[in-house]
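Supplementary Note 3. Input sequence used for the single-chain structure prediction.
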Amino acid sequence: MGSEKDSEKGLEKGLEQGTEGNDMTQHRLDVLERLIDTLAERAKASPKESYTAKLLDQGKHKIAKKLGEEGVEMALAVVDGKKKDVRAEAADVMYHFLVALMARKIPFSDIMEELEKRFGLSGLEEKARRKKD
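The predicted structure, written as discrete structure tokens, is reproduced below.
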């Protein structure tokens, strides 16, 4: 078995060459679907037994604070961290993002719908439209 360093070198080489399995199209949305389902189940548990339930019980201000903290940690990892740090912080951001949506009773499908509306627009066009609304 190769080491983690070997894996990182392979990933970097794959990204440079654009090889299969190492690009953004390998999205593994099945894992995201499983996570959303798991969080929905854990939200029903006692706050003493589930961190997700505990966060939801503490309310949207606590959840927003945690999401912000994780976002800052990810931003710092992007600048100064190793790839494994960025991956770990991105996973934390994703978790807290999903819990925040749950707290506001916004289904993930609404986010996908919003993203879908933006296809065909450049990022600059989309941003300009938001300022007008």
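Helices lie at 4-17, 29-43, 51-58, 60-80, 83-103, 108-117, 123-132. DSSP finds seven helices and no strands in the chain.
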